[in-house]
Structure formats: structure tokens, C-alpha cells
Amino acid sequence: MNGASGANGANTMTAMKTAAQVRPIRLGPRSTVVLVLVSLVGVAAFGWPLLADPQSDLAHSADAPWLFAALLPLLLAVVIAQISEGGMDAKAVAMLGVLAAVGAALRPLGAGTAGIEPMFFLMVLSGRVLGPGFGFVLGSVSMFASALLTGGVGPWMPFQMLSMGWVSMGAGLLPDRRRGRRETALLAVYGVVSSVLYGTVMNLQGWPYIGGMSSSVSFVPGAPVPDNVTRFAAYCLTTSLGWDLPRAAVTAALTLTLGHPLLRTLRRATRRAAFDASATFAGERS
Fold first, then answer.
1. Domain containing 167 — which CATH number?
2. Measured between alpha carbons, how far is 210 from 224 in angstroms, rounded to an integer?
3. Contact 185/256 with Cβ under 8 angstroms?
4. Among residues 24, 5, 8, which one has the least CA distance to residue 16?
5. What are the pLDDT digits (tens) for 245-264?
6. Tens digits of per-residue pLDDT, 190-204?
7. CB atoms within 10 A of CB 14
8. With contact defined as beta carbons under 8 Å apart, do 167 and 194 qualify?
């Protein structure tokens, strides 16, 4: 009896461990390639002013940010469609809708107040549990929904969607071995780094088009890249760091205090959803 009980317990623990690793969206080779290509286009959309020929019409065009703002949503739609093609059932859509709605509702609680954005910790923890594919879709959709909710629609919105997709996807790519306090500490550190990087990347999106600034922090078309990078660093330190650091601090604090129960809840929901289970009907017989 004891041997049978031990075997059953071991089987149960193995099943629970396997279930905890089930992801609602799995990245296949094709969807991974599409995601990488769109990310490269996104990097180019953020950084092209640093490399553009100063004599070109594009370098001086006020329409350039709008061109990328129109291009990125189409590319993001392609990525989401491609990822969904790999297997996104009704349960995954339902979980995506719930988490995106919660994330969109969290953002207005602190947006505009010293850069505090509570949604970041939810995106990090969700990406950690549900994987990089789901994380990218969740980050993008949550930012889109929050922009509609807060009226923050503009040429910057696609860049925000892409950046938040990267944040949540990155959490899903972290090593899987840590659990407990070590895991929440790892996610808190990641939350700090990703929060600051998010603000820095978004600065790069708007900085080349801001006029009337001191020459020591303003973008100079055609200047050597190291010179513009130095000006950009000075711009970040003098303007946005006061928003980026509070965002990072709030993300870390929420992760350390609420991270463990939320991770447990998300993993329990993932197990119960049984994303990898095939549908069966009452009349079927094996």
C-alpha cells in the first residue's frame, strides 16, 4: 500500500509539474521567424534617425513617425495571427482577454503620476508563467486596450505596443528552474531592468522630433552616432529618469509582495485550463 501510495504521489507531482509548464500559445519555427523579423523592423523603426543620411528627405520628414506608426500595427497583426495559427483555442483567448483587461485597467491608476504604471508587474508575471508567445500578444493587446481606455492614441501607440510585447515576452524567456523567493527576486530584477529599458526605448521614439531643446541634449541629424548617443543619454538623465525609476521601483515592490500568490494563481489557472488537452465527447469510445 505504501509503495502504491508513493508511486501515485510521485505520478501526481510529475503530472502537476508537467502541467505547470504547459503554455497556451506555443511558438513554432515559422512564428518564431516572423516574430524575430518584426522585432528587427521595430528596432529599425526606433533607431533609424541615428543612421539616416542627413541629406535625405526622410531624415527631415515630419511624416516619418506616422509612416512607421502605420506600418507597425500591420506587422504586429501579422505576428499575432501567425502566433495564433500555432494553436490559440477559446480558453487561451479567454485568458488573454481577462489579463489584457486587467492590465488596461491597471495602467490609468498611475499613468501620468511620476511614471508609476502598475500594469508592468502583471505583464512580467504573466509572461513568466504563460510563455513568450502569449506574453508578446498579451503585452501588445494590453497596451492597445489601455491606449483606447485612456485616450492615448497617437503615432507613439504602436511603439508602445511593440515595447510592452518585448517586456512580457522577455519574462517568458527567463530560465525556468527558479521557484519561490528566488523566482520572485529574479522577476523583480527583471522588472526593474525592463521598466527602465522600456522608458529608454520610448524616449528614442520621440526624441529626434522634439524641437526647442538645448543643443547638448537635442538630436542632430547626420552627427556621428556616438555624439547623438551621448546627447540621448543626457536627454534621458535630465528628462525621463524621474519617471523610469519610480516605474521600476513600483514594479519591483509589487513583484516582491504580490508575486508569489499571483504566480501560484496563474499556474493553477493554467493547469485547470488544460491547454494541451484534446477535446473529447461523451459518446466517444477509445
1. 1.10.1760.20
2. 19
3. yes
4. 8
5. 999 999 999 999 999 999 99
6. 999 999 999 999 998
7. 10
8. yes
